[in-house]
Amino acid sequence: MPYLNVTHPNQDVLNLHFVDTGFKDPTAPGATVVLIHGWPLSHRMWEPQLEALYQAGHRAIAYDRRGFGDSSKPWSGYDYDTLSDDLHALLEALDLKQVVLVGFSMGGGEVARYIARHGEQRIAKLALLGAVTPYLLKDESNPEGVDGSVFEQMLDGVRKDRPAFLAPFGKAFLNWSEEQPSVSPEWLDYNRIIALFASPHGTLECIKAFSATDFRDDLKRIKLPTLVLHGDSDQTVPFEVSGKRVTEFVPHAQVELIEGGPHGFNLTHVEHTNRQLLDFIKA
User: Where does the signal peptide begin and end (predicted)?
Assistant: First the structure.
């Protein structure tokens, strides 16, 4: 199981777990794609995409954010500056270049903050999938955002009974009901189990980070080809307050909607998601 040791000033050594498929045919390599998972999951959410990217000839790398999956679970460092520095450490350690950087939900924030802090030298293209960018929280400068009470309720739910909170959240994540199951009951349970093994503290701190971090200035720095892929039925990060607004700051971004797609459309609309990603990589 590969790990990367990451050390930031005034912090303990962090072990970041990652999966690296390598190239199916090293003599004819495709693109290198780095996948950043959403909250409160891990690299395991990318299972359908890792296989598709590998079979298409690309090298796919998915890592677990600090506090999640098989990475270390420290009690600090859940701000986006530190999280994007973790990503930078991974790219540097593996000496990755011409990367297609793909961020899902919370991971979209890491994509934007990475560009702002570390530039585009190692990156070829960007993809924001169901991402929290440009800025979720409603305030005087962002009247289109989500009322802060929504995030306070999430924090309260996690503090009081995290397992009980995650069960209905997981269903909303996938727009799942017994009458109309969007994935199998087993996959629904699998997602919940992934989330249960996340750091409780990291789970809380990341709600604060993705809800209140403003990425508008970060997005303005993006000059690379950018794909915005979003479900039009997203109940968790609604398109109107997120993906739809990215072009205000990245005018050249390519925006694609997945009809009937919930927040977790990469699991419910696997073929559509994979086709959009592969076409974008190839273009």
Answer: none
